[in-house]
Specification:
The protein is of the alpha/beta class. It is built from ten helices and 14 strands. Helix 2 packs across helix 7. The protein is elongated. It starts with a strand and ends with a strand. GO terms for molecular function: RNA binding; rRNA (guanine-N2-)-methyltransferase activity; rRNA (guanine-N7-)-methyltransferase activity. Pfam families: RlmL_1st, THUMP, UPF0020. It comes from Candidatus Faeciplasma pullistercoris. InterPro entries: RlmKL-like_Mtase, RlmKL-like_Mtase_CS, RlmL_1st, SAM-dependent_MTases_sf, THUMP_dom.
Amino acid sequence: MSETIRYCCPCHFGLESVLSFEIKRIGGENLTVTDGRISFDGDIRMAAKANICLATAERVLIELGSFHADSFEELFQGVKGLPLERYISRLDAFPVKGHSLKSKLYSIPDCQSIVKKAAVERLKSVYGISIFEETGAVCRIQFNILKDVATIYLDTSGEGLHKRGYRRSSNDAPIKETLAAGIIDLAHVRGDSVVADPMCGSGTLIIEAAYKALRIAPGLKRGFVAEQWESIPKAQWSEEREAAREAIAKENRFRGIASDIDSFAADLTARNVKFAGVAPRITVSRTDICEYKPQPGVITVCNPPYGERMLELKQAEELYKKMGQALHPSKDNPCYIICAHEEFEKFFGKKADKKRKLYNGMLKCQLYMYYN
């Protein structure tokens, strides 16, 4: 019988339902959903599968345990009682980071120090050594203290999972790949969909649409820190990558249409589409939104400027008016637009059929969904 491990995946607020479906699809069990994160059970192989396959998770953490801690002694003893040696070998580095909210232990540097000391004491007792070289693989310990309850994790991802490996460069206000993947899921993109982004920026939305439609695992083009851990067989990573390659639906008829009024953005998208390996499926052009004429059946997705950084507010509002005149959303031409402007619908000229609150970085946005 295989060992059951508790995992945790943070995600963008508002995408919990999307990530839940993804986790169930790859075999995660006993899901617990809270704001911005989902915990679930899986075997050791799940570390590789989740990192490679999950499109909307920010990272994959192993949840080592939770305990009450309103004093440094309780924090120390709680960490010391966890089976850190299951994953951290005698030569591995184990840096500590974390955060605390609504708790008596509020000093992050002090908590880091206590967690580190407890980890050292635990591993000293297991390995019988007093000095740790920390020259091996990196096993980052993360702590989250919320209302005096400490939860301790190990990070298996390393760099955040939004770093797919295809965006070599970006424009001034790129949308994160994980958020883009969530929008694409909410837009009901399928294998035979035609998807257009008339404000493509660096191409993230259209690339994530292609990945979704063609079932391309988002983590295929990158590595993960836990690949160097002795506790996870290296063969499992190569086997899960091979399984993901075999799952690519090359026969699906997806097409993407990307355009932008900015020639730099169009060129940038063309380069990133090529790096992503989906260039044959996507056409890229320099086109003004006023000239955009969606064909019947096309799903339009876009992330227009919000009037902060890229354009002045009045310019953004004028742009939203032009979008409303050009897009004409309907049942045959559904539109999914993420925007931070609270009066977007007024300037766009049509009330959305549905809205969902999402965060683009720290910026509260709405996903305006038009499909009727």
